[in-house]
C-alpha cells in the first residue's frame, strides 16, 4: 500500500564484459496472491556505465508514470568462478595450503568481511521428471547463495544429465542457505521446475 516504496535490496549479478548485456527491470504490484499487474519496465545498458564506481540512476518507467532509483556498480568479480572438474580451483595442493593459512584461527580477524568461500561440484542428476512430450527433459541446474546465482549449461533430451562443473562462491553470511534447483529449458517460455534442494551453510 505504497506509491513510494523503498526496498533497499542488493543483488549481485556475474557479468562478463565480452557480452553486450542489457539489464531489464520490471516493477509489479500485487492485489492478492493470484492477481499481479505490471507497473512498468526500464532498461540499463551495462556496457555504457563507468566501471569501478557506484552509478546513481533515476530510471523513468516506460509507458507508465513513476521512476525507479537505483545504485549500480560494475566491478571485477572476486572469488566467483565456474570451471570444469579437470581444472578445479582447489585441486592444486599449493593453493589448498595457501587457503588453509588464509583462514586459520590466527588470521580470523585480519579481514572481518572475508568469511571464506564455498566450492560446489555439480556432478549429475538421476531419474528426473520428463517435462517434454518426447518423454525427456532439457535440464540445467541453478545454484543460489544469498543474492549470488550461477548456473550450469543445459543437457538436452536427458533424464540423467551430467554437468561436471565446479562453482565457487564467496561467503558473505555464514547463516546463508545454498539452494540448488533443476529446471527444464523450454525455449522462449519460462523454464519448468524439476526439483530443488536447500543446504544450510552451517550444515556443511
Automatic annotation (TrEMBL):
Keyword terms: Calcium, Membrane, Metal-binding, Repeat, Transmembrane, Transmembrane helix
GO cellular component term of the entry, any: synaptic vesicle membrane
All residue ranges annotated as the C2 domain in the record: 1-59, 93-204
Subcellular location: Membrane
Biological processes per GO annotation: regulation of neurotransmitter secretion
Molecular function as annotated in GO: calcium ion binding
PROSITE patterns from the UniProt entry: C2
Bilayer topology: Multi-pass membrane protein
Similarity comment text for this entry: Belongs to the MCTP family.
Protein name: MCTP2 protein
Native species: Poecile atricapillus
Name of the coding gene: Mctp2
Amino acid at each position: 500500500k505504497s506509491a513510494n516504496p523503498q526496498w533497499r535490496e542488493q543483488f549481485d549479478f556475474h557479468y562478463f564484459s565480452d557480452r553486450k548485456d542489457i539489464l531489464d527491470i520490471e516493477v509489479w504490484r500485487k492485489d492478492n496472491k493470484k492477481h499481479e499487474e505490471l507497473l512498468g519496465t526500464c532498461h540499463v545498458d551495462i556496457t555504457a556505465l563507468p566501471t569501478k564506481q557506484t552509478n546513481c540512476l533515476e530510471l523513468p518507467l516506460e509507458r507508465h508514470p513513476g521512476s525507479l532509483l537505483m545504485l549500480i556498480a560494475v566491478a571485477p568479480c572476486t572469488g566467483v568462478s565456474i570451471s570444469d572438474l579437470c581444472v578445479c580451483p582447489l585441486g592444486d595442493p599449493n593453493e589448498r595450503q595457501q587457503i588453509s593459512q588464509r583462514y586459520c584461527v590466527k588470521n580470523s580477524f585480519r579481514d572481518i568481511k572475508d568469511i571464506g568461500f564455498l566450492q560446489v561440484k555439480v556432478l549429475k542428476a538421476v531419474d528426473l521428471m520428463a517435462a517434454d512430450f518426447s518423454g525427456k527433459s532439457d535440464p540445467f541446474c541453478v545454484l543460489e547463495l544469498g543474492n549470488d546465482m550461477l548456473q550450469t549449461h543445459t543437457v538436452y533430451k536427458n533424464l540423467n544429465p551430467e554437468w561436471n562443473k565446479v562453482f565457487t562462491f564467496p561467503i558473505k553470511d555464514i547463516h546463508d542457505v545454498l539452494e540448488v534447483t533443476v529446471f527444464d529449458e523450454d525455449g522462449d517460455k519460462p523454464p519448468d521446475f524439476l526439483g530443488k534442494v536447500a543446504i544450510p551453510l552451517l550444515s556443511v
